[in-house]
Specification:
There is one protein chain. The protein is an alpha+beta fold and 70 residues long. It has one domain. Helix content is 23%, strand content 20%. A hairpin with a 3-residue loop joins strand 1 and strand 2. The longest helix is centred in the last third of the chain and has 16 residues. The radius of gyration is 12 Å and the shape is globular. The chain binds zinc ion. The site of zinc ion has 8 residues, from loops. Zinc ion binds next to loops.
Length: 70
C-alpha cells in the first residue's frame, strides 16, 4: 500500500486510516480533521481495495477540509 503523505491542508504528518462502523474507510488528519470521501466495503478483500483508494485520494490531495472557526 502507498504511504500516507502529510496533510495537504495543514501539512502535519499525522494522517491515519479510519474504519467507520465496519462498512467504510477514509483517511483523516489527526491535526485539522481534513478527510477524504468515504469508501464502503463488504468483505476483507474489498476493504483492502477501499483502503488503497482512500490512501490514493489523500495523496492526490482530493480531500474535504473541515471548516474551522479560528
Ligand atoms: Zn491537517
Amino acid at each position: 500500500m502507498e504511504e500516507l503523505m502529510p496533510c495537504p491542508i495543514c501539512h502535519e504528518d499525522c494522517a491515519f486510516i479510519e474504519t467507520e462502523g465496519n462498512w467504510c474507510v477514509y483517511v483523516q488528519c489527526g491535526h485539522c480533521g481534513t478527510h477524504t470521501a468515504f469508501h464502503s466495503f463488504d468483505s476483507d478483500e474489498s476493504k483492502k481495495r477501499a483502503e488503497e483508494n482512500v490512501v490514493h485520494l489523500w495523496n492526490m490531495g482530493k480531500v474535504i477540509a473541515e471548516a474551522r472557526t479560528e
